[in-house]
Protein: Translation initiation factor eIF2B subunit epsilon
Amino acid sequence: MTPPSSAFKKGVKKEEPPLTAVVILDAFDQRFAPIQESYPCFGTFPICNVPAINFVLSWLMRTEVKNVMLVVSGLNAEHAENVKKEWKLAFTEFTVVACDAVTSVGDCMRELVNRELITGDFMLISNPTAVINTNLVPQIQEFRKRRRENADNVMTLLYSNRENPERSLLGINWETNKLMLFPAANSLNQLKAEKYHFYEGVDIRRDLTSTGIAFCSRLIATQFSDNFDFTGIDDVVREILSKDDILGMSVHIEVLPTKDRAFYAYDYESLVLLNTLMLERWFYPLVPERADPTRFFTANPRNLYLEEDGEEICLKANTWILGDQCFNVSLGTKTKISHLAQIRNSCIGSHTEISKNSQIHQSIIGKNCRIGENCRIEWAFIGDDVTIPDGTHVPKEAIIGNGVVFPKKLAGIPELTLLNAALNEEKFEKLSSEAREGCHVARFKHGGSFWRRAVNGKTIFGVDDEPSDSVGSTSGEDDDGIDDSTRQFHDEVFESMEKTLESNNQQMRNLILEINSSKLACNVTMDDVAKNVFAAFLELPNNEELKGTQELIVSWRDLFGNYYKTKRCQIHLLLAVEDRYNAVEGFRQRVPALVHFMYNNDILDEEGILEWAESIETATLKSSMQKIVDWLNQSEEEDEEEEEESDEE
Structure:
């Protein structure tokens, strides 16, 4: 019998829905406070006189994305609605999600989860200046392939094949592209690696640059809602890597081919660099004259871009366009430029005047500015309505806020950040300002740079079973074998515990959140967390007597239940006890009773105690623990005999 023709037909392959793009329109870095008066919404900041978000939406149009969610703080909702009016016809669905009282990308993601707006896989663009010149087809296909192979492959981070100026580090499995090592929160060029990472085929890469783009499953969004202290996608990555044995999730890295180019801005230096790259048409076909749906730009020789509005551009000599004194320049409407001015790799806002013999290199200048004669400006950001007097040499890496009349007496201050009025220090708690020469000089309270973000740190390669001062060791550890990040974590945990102990309402939930936040900031492992949480606990003043320790353990049961669920974590708790035993003589006699008490209160299991006891090197401690070990072994034997008798019956 011949089978029906339907038997030979292939099943219709289920088509996967296109990724939804989640675009965060705000930047939450306080270094951008000087520009917020003109551009409260970071996505509207002009790159080549084109709002940065327009470049993002332009390249998204060339991908499979049909639905866009533009996420913005409630204060900037009007700006997002204006973007929607210009771009809603380019996509099937364009949604503005306004979130009140958000201060981070993490807050935005939690709001999306609370509103149940994330229903499947999505593309997260956490920075509204992210640009790329490819349609991402192979990268999205690889993400979907990994998801089909294993649903626990929850995220793929997109990197460009370009050496980054900050020399940040990654550890990647060279066979699977699985991310194994990720930099610390407080140091982009610091990794903490162990021997086994190198046996598992991990490549340490410093030749890759993040694009600010990530392909994510819905589980990534829920990670934000489960951890209220997470501020960005990097926090989620660190959590997944540090709890690999618990969460079982994997993060992968996808590197763009060398022909594809991508970039995003995260400080003023990278903003100026992005402006220059865009002027040089580095991301073609993503170019200024094609990225704005409501304004018209012309591209001229030497990469001179003119925003056209009738005859609003005023050039005193048409031959200036063809001269060799100026190239890679974007000019807004009604801009007046002297034919003797020299401008290179810069963006000039509308209604701005630049007088003769002035030189402007690698800078962004706002609207309605007046630049006098014989001025020199390089690697600077200048806001709107700024006046630069004749003969002024603006210092490199200067940031000049709106409405400032630049005082020449301040020209010698490096990395100057100058504002027209005092900062609101309640709103910008990390910043301060002081009055000088009729203006206000702004600074970070911790002394950091406005112009570029800090990447201080060093690579740490921990060496197992070797002393920290051994030849060839690059662990960066002190003589006590504790590296700086672990020591910092311990000190922060102790401080948090002290505050909790002194408070009237000792909320363990708040203490756990603070400890988790310190863990992320210091980028320590779960082993370090388990050991140092209890080490810090033992140092509290209430623990001078055994009774006080027991009472506090009962009171803080939720804390121990959170961190000591597994045998491995319990062993590290006991290692902290062992360290305390060796360091403090008065503590030694309390150890057996303390271990027994924690066993009776279900904080420690017998397997963890027995395994730790076998590893004890201190003879006196091993001897004092022997009674408990014998008792546990006897109890285990009795349980086995009872099981055998029940089986025989």
